[in-house]
Design a protein that fits this description.
The protein has 63 residues and is mostly helical. The protein has a domain of 37 residues. It contains 2 helices and no strands. The protein starts with 6 loop residues before the first helix and ends with a helix.
Length: 63
Amino acid sequence: MKFIPGLGSIAGGVMTAPAASAITTAFGEAYIAALDSLFVLNKGEPPSPQQVLKEFQKWIRKE
């Protein structure tokens, strides 16, 4: 691959893009689930940042 300029960069991008996408999706889904459960628990009131962090960490560990 070193004898063709740019091929290594392209191959690296092809391999890392799906991993980055999967991680971003997992974090986004966990964040939404955490907020959803907190809004239900708080009867529609916005949760505190500490509540969000604690609930988000619980959801991440479930995945």
